Amino acid sequence: MAHGDTASAIFITIPLSHYCEKARWALDRVALPYREEPHIPLLHRLSTTRNEGGTVPVLVHEGRRFIDSTDILVHADAACGGDLLYPRDAALRSEVDALEEQFDTQLGPHARRWAYAQLLSQAKLLRSLWSRGVPWHEALLLPAITPLARRLVRTGYRITPEGVQRSLERVWGVFRQVDERLRGGRQFLAGERFTAADLTFAALAAPVLFPAECRAVAPALQDVPAAMREEVLRLRDTDAGRFALRLFAQERGRSSAARTQGSEP
Ligand SMILES: N[C@@H](CCC(=O)N[C@@H](CS)C(=O)NCC(=O)O)C(=O)O
Known about the structure:
CATH class of the largest domain: Mainly Alpha
Order of helices and strands: EHEHEEHHHHHHHHHH
Radius of gyration: 18 Å
CATH topology of the largest domain: Glutathione S-transferase Yfyf (Class Pi), Chain A, domain 2
Oligomer: single chain
Largest sheet: 4 strands, mixed
Bound molecules: glutathione
Shape: globular
Structural class: alpha+beta
């Protein structure tokens, strides 16, 4: 939920990015007011580098800059009182940190590489995805920028047939580990309630699951190539896939402000 007041944080994004959805979900969850500044690829660098960053998301809040999604989560949690995304209990906290790090490094880049590989040949679809939610004057530049942006995605994310296949295996590997962790009927990945670990898993799995409640820009499942659709349906049909979809359905719209006011257990 973006608020327009002047005290708001500035949240710099590319609307298609799943790391941005990770941070957006956290900001919404802890109810930190922010104004989203969405960009098309390449032009985002004008804003991120001005803030001593590079990739999106970047958060600028009270004169401080956070240039990595995990730093944004940690800051948002602390700024809103703590114990919202990260448990105070030290053992539980290190479990959450380790899971978040694992998803950041093993799930996020591989889900992205596989998903982009399916869509890179769909220039029109990609252009329409990059255009959604950004200022009109940036969207106008997309016909000129898309060919270069596609080339940079291919080289920057090292999209090769072997690499893409390996990435899909890595995604399945993480899903199997999450399946394993959920065995025995646990509701959340660490402890008894929703944490940054659950949020990170679900947000970074979004490009391979297409959750309806995800607030990142995404194509409709019926608009993507059949092979991608079929793989998404296979991943959805796992305990980990069902878990991520449940988190989006039950937790994406929920604010922990309600918990601190006593209306959430
Ligand atoms: N470790 C970073 C990764 C963020 C990331 O990889 N962002 C991608 C979009 S999903 C990006 O900004 N790509 C464009 C670029 O590298 O300039 C984080 O967690 O914030």
